Amino acid sequence: MSATALSNFAIVYVWERPVRxxxxxxxxxxxxxxxxxxxxxxxxxxxxxxxWQHFTMGWAKVLHFYAAVVFVLAVLARILWMFLGNRYxxxxxxxxxGRDRWSRLLPTLRFYLFLRREPPPVLGHNPLAGLTYVLVxxxxxxxxxxxxxxxxVSASGFMHGFNFLVPLVGGLxxxxxxxxxxxxxxxxxxxxxxxxxxxxxxxxxxxxxxxIFSGYKFMPRETxxxxxxxxxxxxxxx
Length: 238
Hints:
Layout: H1 3-6, E1 9-13, H2 17-41, H3 51-54, H4 56-84, H5 99-112, H6 127-154, H7 165-168, H8 172-204, H9 208-214, E2 216-220, H10 224-234
Antiparallel strand pairs: 1-2
Helix pairs in contact: 2-4, 2-8, 4-6, 6-8
């Protein structure tokens, strides 16, 4: 791209470091939790010989526990950053408040349904993605609650105190079922998330995929005043 063409684009710092770190911690921890969780539920690796030599199930449970710690901290940190972070991480990106966000919701849906050639321009999460993340973080909290309920039964110390969650989630069997279903829903979302990110990146050409590593996106300068409006309507700081 020529220098003249580059001058027509603004480099915008969208995803702050806590958002990017939390994102990748959630990704990696879900991968480890899924593999170890499936093994704990249905051992698919049978090792012969004395248990003390292999400790296969033990290692699976240890890895599952520490990946769960990373997952819980990352999810809570990302939720906290909805109140402490910049405007692109703000909770108003997930619950549309301004008229501009609502007006972009249907056109964005039409783009995903291949009924519209170009998506409405957006710097952070588009309105449809933001609403989807409300559901995703709800699933994450459900996974955390059921996981704590299941772990509290055999745990000691303060972790045993989470056994109050067992009746709240319908008992151990129901908690295990919810925990398992949520895992598959999150994995299904991950597949769609990668697909939609590639789609938006190739269509918008604003470094959407690259921004989750660098934090920066490229936007045409003429669209920036329009994209600023929803934040002013919602009363969000720059």
